[in-house]
Design brief:
Chain lengths: 384, 384, 384, 384
């Protein structure tokens, strides 16, 4: 018998969490994602802006150290010998910047939910904070963690579909078809906390990020027609956006929270001079690839046709579906590789890819441009 | 034994055809569609603009009377006692008006392929000609003949999805991904014969017509970003269009001929305050209906959940798929009912519905507006 | 102008029909199938076993010659100079043999609905009658007319999936889940008219024929467990059958009329040493092909990957779905080619393929073996 | 700030593992499943039958206590104050019994992979050992952990589809289409370690268990036709099985490892007098429900139509796919609830359901019956 593992020896990264208290949604997702591959250990938290709730939620989770607020947490953890090395920020959007800043400036890595911030001003400040910090910043545009999204990106980069012409991305949901007052709906439809974008901020940024991630292209300008269909709603719940990418590709982006029959139907289609690729988040283990004039092919996660960039993020054989949590966990896995390399003063392997603070800034710019364009009757607005 | 059917007794409508010679595509489709339900008998034709080819093609089809050109045919048939009662016009677009006029003014019903004409000026003249004629005019926007499209239209009219908010319609194909020189490609990419619109004219008009047909709404304005991706192509092969409908609904229309992996992927999705409907041309026997907050339901042609407007256009039981030709034949079936009522000096049953010359005008206006908007950097253009 | 087509010049085959009166189902399907490609002209009929109904139905269809019964029709038509060249027999099963015999012995080609007969004795007599006649016999196992079924057959023959190991074929329906008394249900559940098999005869024979057609294999023996689930039903409404094919392949066949949610869900899957093929009747324009260890490929009718045997039976481009009626019409098309060759004293092109009287005999043997096996507690029964 | 969580306070169950060393597959799955919901902490292991490999593998996982063999582990852990409370047994099948016995008799709960054992004799002994132990026994027939499988079970129990008539279950794979020599293939095709069943043992038991779990029915007898298609293979790689259930329902089961194009295509269809249910493991978030004569409905995990038994095992909203690992983790979640109740001397809530040692025995009986039946030319064999 051999005994005696210390927690250090396990190599797990000590993680804290800001936000994610009892009635939150995405906090729980981050905790599962961090835990799935055993690379993180959640040890500390400031889980709510209400101190009592923060304490109560942290104790319920069995955390070792529970704080009343994130600033206190940042200060104390930074002083501890075995304080947290990274923090997950899973608050409503308007808190992201203030929270991230406290940890970044103390050298604690930040894993932050999207969109980056609720305002463009905050986003720019956060970029500065992140880029001048001695710490990493990872944004959880989790859909980029799906293996078949990586496969698509790789195939585009390899030229398998040739020069890109058309990008169709959509992200319809139906959960806000009627007025909703529960917590998740409430803050997401409040511009003070969510930002000026509604569907554009909450899901449009995902769609936009996914399109850019897979194609490797940046949009140069957009024209947006936003609507708030539900009476009294202060932010858009449906967005129709035309996109013009560098190099001449054109695109359409549709985000909606009022499309009955759509649960979380993020879908990307990319067409080039030589072929097409199609991927759907609700069926994420598959990627359709059509070389022009050849039969459509179904590439499966970990199956025939899938390459290294997809397979390194897969855990189980093809036909054993991985889903949303595994895709989310892949972002944590990339973060872990980057943090471990940072520990060692090295760079992670080139295969390690995660959304950055710049990607987050691009998302906030996307929202701002949508809102601006829509206010000008869908006039074209430059991005950057 | 009982003998002696005269052709008259059969009640078949005597039909002529303009265009549709040996190497045409849509002419053959019209002939099958006219024949499928045994309501028409094709007896005469001027099948090509080249007299020899017209004669040769007509004889190959075993027609009773073959003409060198459509004008000759119109004049002579009008004088015959048992001349044609109706004519199908299946030429390239730029010939539609001139041909239709000759028959309409002689009281011969016209069944005309879409788009109505190659120019807006011609379209307006054709509306006048049709509306002042003692004859019917039917436009073969054939997708409105699919039973489940009728079902969708009925459900919208019944209020099953409530007031409409969002209309997503798309019609991607891939057959023009590269330069093509065969006949079907050649005239469709020649603005002299096809009109100023490429994908917008050939398939965008179908998509637009379908959206209006099902929703019962008219678009008030549009903003379009058109591209000709294939070098040297003179008309658009991809179109991204924002739509604003009367009453506040918003929509997106995408037509493309350069999207590899899409054969003929016309698809309509309509979302209202109470539910959603989704239909796809490549899987036409099904209609998805989601009442908000209830499970999605699959309504099948002639099956559970389908109503009279769909069932009256169905021939075989559910699970025995009907397709493109049957949908097309349904337009001929509607035409036959209207013509038979016309014979009797009555009106057809209220259930009889077919695309009219006004629908055709709307399609040509749609193309013109797309071209105009795109030339102005996707500025909004009013329709009407 | 050129005038003067005689009916002869058109080349259409003069066709009669036995059965298919007013309230029949399959008769109407045969008429559309015969008409679709304009190769037949229905001119005579004995449409019902009730003389008045026969006359009434024939006149309603506008037939030139209407008979009170099929024998009268066979005798008189055989004497006419322009009598029918072929007859479609679309009666309930128990009439097939008697009717077919009358026409075959007078040199009139027979196109007969399936199953061949209601008894094995009749089937054997019909084989004799057909094989000694100076006329052709075509059995409408219509599913063999689907282009992608031809494609599958071709690929098996080409060795694309290697030596066959496993054949899974199923044909579930739900229309007899409860007791039904309308005409179609009534005779199909009456062993006097339908034969000893219920689901096995009506749809199991289709499934069995399809499996043999595509694989090119014959079953050597079967073990069947039949049920009549609906109280009072005299024939099976569900059949579970194990199959052993020559050469060692094994298979399963499931037919059911009591499987709610299945409309007409005939489906064939064939697996060999090198790959697999999957086809579904409700989605007939597609064939899935998986070469072992490669991505699954979607071969589409008239599209990339489809070969001549499929394309020669296609009318419209890929993405324009063809369905049940077109597949059925393809059997009529094959019949027409064979009959035209017969007229000329030649053989049809080798590509012409249709189900024969021997295939029909195999189907009746299949039913008999199922019934026999089931009566012996699913013991193995040899076929042949 | 509040500090001081002890591991005990966390409530995590201390877990050991037998098997699951470096090159294993299912061990890693169990570890993720145990970790996902943070209810277990893996602290000890004997991960290989080779002592050095066991030590090396355990250290690589950072386990606190690593043993050379499972007996040593059982003895020592049972004596420790904070020894393991439960052990996961993830070895090849032939080791299950011997390992389980050591832990059960010392009051350590066992979570064991399927099939229960490699022989029927072992299975019976294990039932005795489990039922006489002061410890729980949970078998990881993980597919019963999928929320929509629970939904199906609930609906059957509620009578939503009426009395069951037909059960179609299949589990095709393709990974053994050719001879394979890597570890996972090697022991699974060795009857000494796997048991007499090949595909029947490895996946047929899953299919059989799933059918029984959802329907609540037991099979009374079966007739099986097994094949080993790959030359030299000692166990079946394809199985065709007829099933007769108590109460008169009939079924078919197909398991195959040689069906190219099938990755892990477990699929269950159940038809009753009033409706049908269909579920597919590769698309596990959906359940199709067809009430007879009504449109098919799509019930989604955590979405409209899903009830408590499904929702209590769901983590994320509908449209955010959960997969294989989440379903597997649900078995661990059920185990955790049962173990926590055991700790407290109570029973878990009635909603807690997991496969038992008796289910395992039924699986081994199923394999034995298949082998016996097949050796007797597919004669019927009683299942107890």
């Amino acid at each position: 018998m051999v005994t005696g593992r210390s927690e250090e020896a396990s190599g797990r990264i000590r993680l804290g969490m800001v936000g994610g208290g009892n009635d939150a949604f995405i906090g729980g997702v981050h905790r599962i994602a961090a835990r799935l591959d055993d690379k993180f250990e959640l040890v500390a938290g400031a889980l709510s802006s209400t101190p009592e709730k923060s304490i109560e939620s942290g104790q319920a989770l069995g955390l070792e150290r529970v704080y009343e607020d994130f600033k206190q947490m940042a200060i104390r953890e930074a002083r501890l010998k075995s304080g947290i090395e990274a923090v997950s920020i899973v608050t409503p959007n308007h808190v992201h910047y203030a929270a991230a800043r406290e940890f970044l400036k103390r050298g604690i890595h930040v894993i932050c939910d999207k969109p980056l911030t609720s305002t463009l001003a905050d986003a720019k400040k956060l970029v500065k904070a992140a880029e001048s910090a001695n710490a990493l910043f990872i944004l959880t545009h989790n859909y980029t963690g799906y293996p078949m999204v990586r496969q698509a990106r790789e195939m585009v980069a390899n030229g398998d579909i040739g020069k890109i012409r058309v990008v169709q991305v959509e992200y319809p949901q139906d959960w806000l078809t009627e007025q909703q007052d529960f917590k998740q709906a409430e803050w997401r439809t409040d511009p003070e906390r969510s930002g000026a974008g509604g569907s554009t901020g909450d899901i449009g940024t995902h769609a936009y990020n996914l399109a850019c991630f897979v194609t490797g292209l940046k949009a140069e300008s957009l024209a947006a027609d936003l609507q708030a269909f539900v009476p009294g709603r202060k932010v858009d719940d449906n967005a129709h956006v035309l996109l013009r990418f560098e190099g001449g590709a054109r695109g359409m982006l549709w985000s909606s929270q009022v499309a009955p029959g759509n649960e979380n139907a993020l879908r990307l289609r990319v067409y080039g001079e030589k072929g097409g690729l199609e991927w759907s988040q609700e069926d994420p283990n598959y990627l359709w690839f059509t070389p022009y004039n050849e039969p459509k092919r179904l590439i499966t996660r970990n199956g025939a046709g899938a390459g290294d960039p997809a397979n390194r993020l897969s855990r189980v054989p093809p036909g054993h579906p991985e889903g949303y949590l595994e895709g989310f966990a892949n972002i944590y896995g990339e973060a872990a590789e980057a943090i471990q390399a940072f520990r060692n003063g090295t760079s992670p392997d080139a295969s390690v890819v995660y959304p950055t603070v710049r990607d987050g800034l691009n998302g906030v710019k996307f929202v701002a441009a949508c809102v601006q364009s829509s206010s000008k009757n869908a006039a074209w607005v430059k991005l950057e």
